[in-house]
Amino acid sequence: MNRKISTVLITGITGFVGSHLADYILKHHPKVNIIGLARWRSPTDNIAHCIDKITLHYGDLTDLPSLKTLLVQERPDAIFHLAAQSYVPYSFIAPVATLESNIMGTCHLLEAVKELKQTSGYDPVIHICSSSEVYGQVQEGEVPILETNPFRPASPYAVSKVGEDMLAQQYWDSWKIQTIRTRMFTHTGPRRGSVFVVSNFARQIAAIEAQIKPPVIAVGNLKSVRTFTDVRDAVHAYWLLVTKCPAGEVYNIGGTETMTVGEMLNKLLALSTTADIQIQVDKDRLRPSDVTLQIPSTEKFARQTGWKPTIPFDTTLKDTLTYWREYFKTQPIYHEKK
Predict the structure, then answer these.
(1) For the chain, which domains are there?
(2) What is the mean pLDDT of residues 278-300?
(3) Angle at the Cα of 281 (from 277 to 283), degrees rounded to 5?
(4) Considering the entire predicted model, what is its pTM?
């Protein structure tokens, strides 16, 4: 299978993954038209360097008419549905908002495509970005995790992704809307939001080096095991997904470098120019329920596409730390929280 793509829609284009996906397409497939969907209040910092090369539409996944208007006007061949409330701890605070954004937002998108397919034959391929969080706390005998593993969602965010995942499957089964689902495992890199673990630790280290924060890193659970992927490998995988994978399927995508969160932190600390940085557990960073073992089997996706990660995790860590060092060079000096 080799789908020809001339126009893509990226929901959440101003975000971490969306902006890197735009970069990938601009570099490797420059003839493809890129349409981005963003909320009017979304910062555009992540796409400032390429905003003149894309077409940006303002709308909201919770507003069905705005989605219909966009799809009628642009008719993209492929839709990368990346927009979501993606911060797990926040989902414990705001579960309803998380469910509305992730489940209802996805449902609105699929409904808009379904209506246009029935009325005009419009039939794009749609990447639905689920999450490894749907698997929850797996048992030791269940790793590496297969796509057939049971769901045990351990947060409202994970529940929302189960709903999104199953909606995509149902729209394929019922109406042959061409959804393809991914369950991406931990991915990171430059531009990652500061609330996510690798980026958060890198930001704290950069702030310490800039002497605007005491030499103490606040941490949560350091014993969780993760398999890390560079975002630039992840977006390459997403492109292969929409061009080479059949509709109705689901794929795990993840890296090959597995370690505890504590081991990852030690790698970052080894890159620091500041010695004697202390580590301090912050109880506010501990989740009510946690997922501590995430090691994927990505064999199904590799067989279909030939994809494998190419960027070493040490490079990812260096680039992420460099990103935050550059950030603090351009920001006003202020006192960071411990």
Answers:
(1) 7-188+231-253 (3.40.50.720), 197-226+257-294+311-330 (3.90.25.10)
(2) 85
(3) 150
(4) 0.95
